[in-house]
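Sharing a chain and its predicted structure for anyone who wants a worked example. Both blocks are below, sequence first, tokens second.
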Amino acid sequence: MDSNTQGFTSYWRNTLADAESGKGAFERKDEESFTQWMNIDKGRLDEEIVQSFFVGENEKVQTVKVLLRPHVWIHLLMHGKERTAGAPGIVTPLVTSALLNREGFLFPAFPATIPRDLLEPLPKGTFSIGEMEEYDKYKTSHDSLTFGPGDEDERREETDEQRTERHARYKLLWQKYLKEADQLLNNVAGKWLESPEQYESAGYGFIIKANQPGGASIHILPMYDHLLSCKKEVPLLARFASKDKSPVEPLLASNAMFSERLGHSGDKFPLATAQRDALSHYLTQQPGDILAVNGPPGTGKTTLVLSIIATEWTRAALNKTEPPVVIAASTNNQAVTNIIEAFGKDFATGAGPMAGRWLPDVTSFGAYFPSSRRKAEAAKKYQTEDFFIRVESLEYVEDARLFFLEKARLAFPTQECHSPEHVVDLLHQRLVELSAELEQIEPAWDNLNAIRQERCAISDDLEQYIQAKRTLLLNSTNEISLLTQGKKQWEQYRAGESIMFALFSWLPAVRTKRHYQMKLFLEATFGERMTEFQGTLPDGIDAFIEGLIAEALKEQAEYQQQIGLAEDISQRESEAAIRWREVTHSLGSPGETKLSLNEADQLADTRLRFPAFLLATHYWEGRWLMDMAAIKDLQDEKKRNRINYVQARWQRRMKLTPCVVMTCYMLPHHMKIGIRDKKLKKYAESYFYNFADLLIVDEAGQVLPEVAAASFALAKKALVIGDTAQIAPIWNSYPTIDIGNLLEQKLLTGDTQEELHDAYITIGDSGKSAASGSVMKIAQFNSRYHYDPNFARGMYLYEHRRCFDNIIGFCNELCYDGKLFPKRGIANGTLYPAMGYLHIDGKCVQTSGGSRYNLFEAETVAAWLAAHKQDIERHYNKLLHEVVGIVTPFSAQVSAIESSLRKVDINCNDDKNGLTVGTVHSLQGAEREIVLFSSVYSKHEDGEFMDSDSSILNVAVSRSKDSFLVFGDMDLFEIQPGSSPRGLLAKYLFASTDNALQFDFQERQDLSSSQTQTYILHGVEQHDVFLNQTFNSINQSITIVSPWLTWEKLEQTGFLASMMQARARGIDITLVTDKSSNTADVDFEKRKEKNQRLNEAVEKLTEMGITTKLVNRVHSKIVIGDEGLLCVGSFNWFSAAREERYQRYDTSMVYHGDSLRAEIKTIYSSLEQRQL
């Protein structure tokens, strides 16, 4: 292992270890994210705090994961200001990942750690409390106490005495944990604790709900340690860690690697051009190579992966080698289950006797190796290790052998098919024949194309050319005949000339006459040809005539040659065209010679390459039966862990499933082997370095370098697929820690801060930084090809087929500079709008852990879905969970929506029949016909989270195939700048009034109390009566918010008369309306007319003493009376059009009570922000 690879391996290893210790330095403003933890020595939280941590959790959940920070040190101020620039405002020197149960007890599930960002080495001038070296020394020799709830915590009944005993046992364990944690801190940071200048202990701790499970690196860290100790040469990891950028190589020609592309995954659709190019360039990869494929949403990344695997599997079958070991990995279970589900449903079955699998109960072309925690559940849906254990039995093998031979006899009815060996030979022979057919196509085209180019070099119309040349040849032949005859006449003329002319030609008069007579003869005989004669008469005439004849003969020969060449080309083109028709006949071509190589390539995908893949599938099934028959003792074989057994087991299992899928966290665990140590004369644990033929990393833009680097040491080459415009990784490291770890491994060089900064930027640009990098960035850096110069290195996929054009148009504009080619078309005949919305006046609340939820919005989503469940299932002829997915930016809202769904009997459990509800992070890579998006933010608490990163909405919108429906406060979308993600989304959502969804308004529980009266209004009549009565009953003021305002409607409804009476009583009346809604029109004259009508209405109202406020975009329909009446709903109070089709949805909730003041204040504040 070279020094650079070793350095980065150590760096990534340490980064991963640091991630589990969390962050220790914070600013004062960060304190809001934590819950203060008093009475730390008790180890038990107050009931109020416990309840806040279980908000949104299922009632069955008994524990939640939290991070404990038992010590908090506060930076002292001087005259109200920070005293030292760069010093953190808060230091939490100990962190423990723990479980909190519903009784409030805390259980340290993992050892206490000191955060890495507090330990040297760190960048110069950075605050620290100790050194990493001392920390490592102490942790090496000291174990930290961990303990969990245990079985006793599950007791449903216990006596008071038993409970007291249990609490006492807990207290002893808790005190031991605190003691050991303090010992760790004293040994590593003792000097700082003795003199914590400018800091003092706060006297309390911090606790926060954990965002993700800890201990995930339990399998990766030991492999890193083993690799660093054995220093094995790992070329793929060396390339992954390389600082040198590979030079860009020229792209291959279109349709390159035609016959090498042997397999395809489907029988209906060929690969798109960019997919085919990516496959061709992949096939040029050598061991140690990394190829990045940049795949925006819905551009066929999965289809490409399947065809690459099909090609590799088919090629190995053709060559009679062992099957390739292909591992597909990613960073989370959602991503890998998306892959494994594709292996189960996206490989076509085919038709005829070769269709499907020839082994019973093999349902997928992929196997899934999950963590032990998920194994039981995964085994219900996927082919896991349990599947292999089940099929590797004598009973199954015997049944499978009979099943296989039965299928084979149907496919080869003229053969006996008496054994798997015989069938394997038949399948291979057929595969060779298909490969030969494929190999003939490109040469046949090249030959035909070359001849056509020869023809084009002569003439676009060869027949006309030949005819023209034949005419010229005939003219040339006639010319030769005339010249030859003229020559004879000239000779006869000379012979008959009087001798007197020759004797006396020296006399001028005689000479002149003689020349005159010759000239007349020659012109009469040779015509205009004589104009070219420049010699003397008569001596030069013979040579001139000979020259004319020679020139004519030369032309004749050239014409004959040209005709011969053209006829030869015509003949060869005809033969080549016949040959082209012959070789493309098996592709289903109608026999037209106009079929191009590109068209033949597309047909070959479904007519040759897919059948070849089916043959390879059955070939490997037969080989698997042969392998199983060769094992003498199956039970003994399963116990063996030596390298030769493990290798044979992998290769045998790859004959059933061409790809195994798992997370990068689990891959090292499944690559453990036993290697004999000659010195110790025993087997030692090792890893299968450089073993997998291909490592595929999917959703690589989300994968951290330190998590995946170990996987690269286990493979020969890598295909990395992702999209850096989608969700980025959740980085566990911070720049200060990151720089320190790089300095520790001497990976950063420089004498000055500027030089170190530049060196750090360079590493960041290469994607290898643990604070900003991703596997996708590293792959782009290392790719030898650059398909699109406007984007990063690697191949690029453009054709989008998942979403309707008016859905992906948003993503294309937001993230891809319009480069995507939408292929599905504009939405037509869908159940709901392609881009739809339902305005909800809910309330956003921030949890103690920093996440957010909007309970009213969650309840509305659930109620809407319950109301439309039958329509959706009827329209798509599928179950609800197969059609609909729910996405939200916040994990707390996921819990709120799941809880609301359960209340309306919609299954959202984590099983095959459960509706998917998740954050954009967890749903990346998935797709549904309908996606509901819960935006959460409200007038009470808006935020920039969705606008801070365009990838959030890019991923959310691109999950939907038919409809993307936003549930939330639309007023917040309207007020965003058009350049922001939410502002751009507003442009698509509000492009048509038909995009608005209609639904009964629900009751907000947070506004309801024992002191608050609530009732609901239905239909136009009830709303009109309510408002007129309110004008008569209020005491001080009334505000009506309505997007539309028309004078005619004020008169027709009696509202105008009621307002006049209210004004007479001294009531303040304010009407709030949306200027844009009232004046918008594509026609200038109509827009001008609407604007005039609005101004006239405002003037009349002003004259009556009624205040009219014009605001920028409002979707809320609200009535506020004094400080104790609030009506919120979907009814447009002053709208001119009250369509019957919407009357059943014209609902509003009316609230009466003194507890509404805060809500009313929030509404007024929001309106003021948007007033024009």
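Comments welcome. Residues 541-584 form the longest helix (44 residues).
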